[in-house]
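Sharing a chain and its predicted structure for anyone who wants a worked example. Both blocks are below, sequence first, tokens second.
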Amino acid sequence: MGVDQSVHDLTARRPQDEPWYRPAGNEVTLFEHCHKRGLAVMLKGPTGCGKTRFVEHMAWRLGRPLITIPCHDDLAASDLIGRYLIRHDGTVWQDGPLTRAVREGAICYLDEVVEARQDTVVVLHALTDYRRTLPIDKTGENVQAAPGFQLVVSYNPGYQRMLKDLKPSTRQRFVAMDLNFPAPEHEALIVQHESGVEPALAKGLVSLAGRIRQLRDRGLAEVPSTRLLITAGTLTLCGIPVREACYAAVVSPLSDEPSMVSTLRDLVNGTFV
């Protein structure tokens, strides 16, 4: 099975192309030091809190290409490393996205890494210590990481740890950075910037999210992300009333359980009177 991937060449750092990111702490400085030292980074945080945007911003800031790999249950080691392909003129080797990142000195970002099989994650080990190499068993090659290469992974420690988790031997190979939802005033600025809504509406959406997030341990498995708030704001710019936008973009994605949906709708109605 193949692997979906996206490749962004961010080496030409034009200001207008900068992925917009508002730091919440010292994460930018910490990431820069990790990149300088070739240290692997693990980003921990809830769904939609800005992990992917942060990596995109840092790749642009550092002037490195970014290869993003969404992880899933069927992700095999060969999807990362590469495989032989049969062509009309013979068999040829094709590098996978991880191998290309290692050769080119790119930042390789494995999104939601715990979704991958454990035997797949093991291939990362030699890249996360002093060796900085990628063994390719099928070709007998040991690929030395080019300058600028960095391995970054992310996962959601909330719901994912209830189902699966990384082995301690893997976790301890990374510098872990905890990202969370921004402070309300910062989150409102993000919603305003990304969706284009007025400040008052952005603050209202963030206020709604704060109320719903208090239900995290009361029957709600996932809480509204900043991404959902941006989507709701975007819908309002299309002429959809704010309550309906919140029903569609915030309430429905979070739960199908009737009593919980009713509670969430009540919170929407109480926020936007």
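Comments welcome. The two ends are 50 Å apart (CA to CA).
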